[in-house]
Amino acid sequence: MIEGGRIRLKTWQQAAVVVGSAVGALLDPRRADLIAALGETTGKSAFERVLQRMKSSPEGRAVLLERPRVISAKVGHAWDLPANTFGAAFARFMGSRNFSPDD
User: Fold this and answer.
1) Which of these, 36, 62, 74, 87, could form a disulfide with 78 (CB 3.0-4.6 Å)?
2) Among candidates 56, 52, 59, 20, which has minimal Cα distance to 37?
3) What is the pTM of this model?
4) Which residues have a Cβ under 8 Å from the Cβ of 100 and sit 6 or more positions away?
C-alpha cells in the first residue's frame, strides 16, 4: 500500500530490508543508499524523539521553519571551527570518507 509517497512494508519485508541493508553496509560502508534504508527502517522512534526536542526549543523551531539545505557553500567554513564543535566533527567525518554535502 502506498501512503504519502511511501510504500508500507509488511513486518517480514521490513526485516529483510534491515538485514540486507545492514549486511550490505557492513561490507561496503560507502553505500549511502543502504545506510539510509537501514535508518529509515529502524530509526522511527529516534527520529520522533529528535523532532520533539527540536519543536521544544526556539532554535529547533527556527530550523524546522527555515529548512536550510546542507551544501558546500554553506558549510565549507566548518573546517575552520574549533575541534570540539559539531561543525568540525562534521567536516572531519565527511572529509575522512571523501563525502561531499553536495552529493
Assistant:
1) 87
2) 20
3) 0.51
4) 72, 94
